[in-house]
Design brief:
about 180 residues, mainly beta, Jelly Rolls, seven-stranded mixed beta sheet, elongated
Length: about 180
């Protein structure tokens, strides 16, 4: 079964498969991050699951943040009262993170409006796995036109090579409520 973006409203109902040209990996989707080397991603060819990983490359200290995510560009034919992005995900945080280091799962609309979904602090204990189905982010009063939704990660810093986090997105839908 492949992952699909599903865009629904009272005007449009379209199923869009992830290997369409509208899906893109964005290595630096949050403002203020400037470390593309520490952001990488892939799309599983058989399942369609989207994955993005931050950190885990070397022992360099990065204190000005890292971000990466997957974006989808779509068109709204009319103003939308409420735009809801639903998704299933799994978030893995390695045990090497210290308590002053954190990772945030973020949903962004048009690169400026951001919704923080989950914030996880490191504790230097066991690896952490957070798995959720039907998580959502809601945006109000979205005008007609071309828009970009990005689902991704922000990591405030890393101090060791074994500090990394991985986000796997297995299902996504976008619901536009108009009128």
């Amino acid at each position: 079964m492949s992952v699909a973006w599903l865009l629904m409203s009272n005007v449009i109902y379209t199923r869009l498969v992830l290997n369409a040209n509208r899906i893109h990996l964005i290595p630096l989707f949050l403002q203020g991050t400037n470390n593309p080397y520490y952001s990488r991603g892939q799309r599983d060819a058989s399942s369609g699951v989207l994955e993005v990983t931050l950190g885990g490359r070397d022992n360099d200290v990065i204190q000005d943040g890292m971000s990466g995510g997957w974006s989808y560009i779509f068109t709204l034919l009319e103003e939308t009262r409420k735009l809801t992005v639903n998704f299933d995900y799994e978030l893995f945080l390695s045990r090497a993170y210290e308590s002053f280091e954190y990772v945030a799962l973020v949903v962004s609309l048009d690169g400026s409006t951001e919704k923080e979904i989950v914030l996880v602090n490191g504790k230097g204990m066991d690896d952490k796995v957070i798995s959720e189905s039907e998580e959502k982010a809601t945006f109000l009063a979205v005008p007609a036109g071309i828009h970009k939704i990005t689902i991704g990660l922000y990591n405030n810093q890393k101090t060791q090579g074994d500090e990394f986090t991985t986000l796997r997105i297995s299902a996504i839908s976008i619901l536009a409520a108009t009128g």
